[in-house]
Amino acid sequence: MTLAWPWMLVLLPLPWFVRRWLPPTETGMTLCVPALADFAVSSDTAGPASAEAPRRIRPRGDLRIAACVWLLLILAAARPLGFGDPQQLPVSGRDLMIALDVSASMASRDLRLDGQPVERLDAARELARDFLQRRDGDRIGLIVFGSQAYLHTPLTYDLHAVQAALADTGVGLAGRETALGDAIALATRRLREFGDSSRVLLLLTDGANTAGTLTPAQAGWIARREGLRIHAVGIGAEHTPIVTGNGDRESNPSADLDEDALRKIAAQTGGTYRRATDSDALAAFYRLVDELEPADQGSAVVRPARELYPWPLALALILSTVPALRRIHRGAARPTA
Predict the structure, then answer these.
(1) What CA–CA distance (Å, rounded) separates 337 from 328?
(2) CA distances, 141 to each of 97, 107, 163, 196 (Å)
(3) 22 CB contacts (<8 Å, ≥6 apart)?
(4) How far is it, in rounded angstroms, from Cα 128 to Cα 135?
(5) Are 186 and 143 in contact (CB under 8 A)?
(6) 131 CB contacts (<8 Å, ≥6 apart)?
(7) Whole-angstrom Cα distance, residue 229 to residue 210?
(8) Are the CB atoms for 326 and 60 separated by under 8 Å?
(9) Chain region(s) in the chain for CATH 3.40.50.410
(10) Where would I find the VWFA domain in this sequence (predicted)?
């Protein structure tokens, strides 16, 4: 057992100091007692001797109980902690941030998932959840970016929380444009706090940098200086048939995707770039990240702590009722005239 706040023990002598240094309160000439039975003197002991040696009344029992109550209260305030059996937790030492584009173009329905056309964002979220299930032991966070970049979920070992955060994202959540450089800079700044670990950024986007303060080149230089690897994927089909009055023609829904910038960022930081023109290619990108950044399954031994303060607190509460119960008992036992 250990104490979380051992400095609370300095309050133990406080009642003694109060009694020692504060002047006594004026009570006048009145003596209040719970019962006259304590003052009864039998006829066998009555006489001059008893008058010369009057009985000294001091509630020592109540003082001892009050001291015990104070001791237990201070012990509870110091927060005693008990430790359970050692447990092993899987730890890989890898910190991985996902930066997900939620700009307006991510609403394009040019990808298919399970044979059904879906929005780019829906495909990225669904396949990201499958990816998270394979990263047990990693610390993962989520950044969403549009016109601005926001930290949606800080780095955590709770992968269920990250999956729930992914489900809460939506197109336009952070604006309709694409602040690609700011998203990289935000991930770099958040991962900088964990300099001793392997730091990785997964960048998922379907556009070019159209908003924000930093350009992708500037943000990539900062990421390289901080030792952050960036694996980027460009999302979106290359050609989509469109039926018009003049006949069928093809359009390129990913014309705004700046693949050159993404390739340079990935190469600059020691990462990789892939193009995902369909959901299969996007799933292949996640598998590639699993190969390049394996979740090295180590283990850390921890002993879970549990709070023990309710026990001394409950005992103090029980002891504090003893003087009151004794007075009630004496009052009930007092003889009536």
Answers:
(1) 19
(2) 5, 23, 10, 17
(3) none
(4) 11
(5) yes
(6) 286, 289, 290
(7) 23
(8) no
(9) 89-300
(10) 95-292
- Which residues pair with residue 273 across a beta bridge? 232
Q: How many helices (H) and strands (E) does the chain have?
A: 11, 15
Nearest alpha carbon to residue 259 among 226, 236, 234: 234
Rounded to whole angstroms, the Cα distance separating 182 from 103 reads 14
Residue 297: which pLDDT band, with cuts at 50, 70 and 90?
A: low
Domain covering 89-300, topology: Rossmann fold (3.40.50)
Contact 208, 256 (CB under 8 A): yes
Encode pLDDT of 158-174 as tens digits: 999 999 999 889 888 88
The token duo for 113 is 């998932």
Q: Which residues pair with 118 in a beta bridge?
A: 111
Alpha helices (runs of H) in the chain, residue ranges in sequence order = 14-21, 48-52, 60-77, 120-133, 159-168, 180-191, 216-225, 259-269, 279-292, 310-320, 322-333
Question: What is residue 217's predicted lDDT score, i.e. its pLDDT?
Answer: 92
Which residues are 239's β-sheet partners?
Answer: none
Helix (H, G, I), strand (E, B) or coil at 153: strand
Q: Which helix (H) or strand (E) holds 143?
A: strand 139-145
pLDDT value for 57: 47
55 vs 132, more confident? 132
CB atoms within 10 A of CB 224: 17
CA angle (50, 328, 12) in 5-degree steps: 85
Return the residue matching tokens 């300095």: 10
Which residue type is seen at 2? T
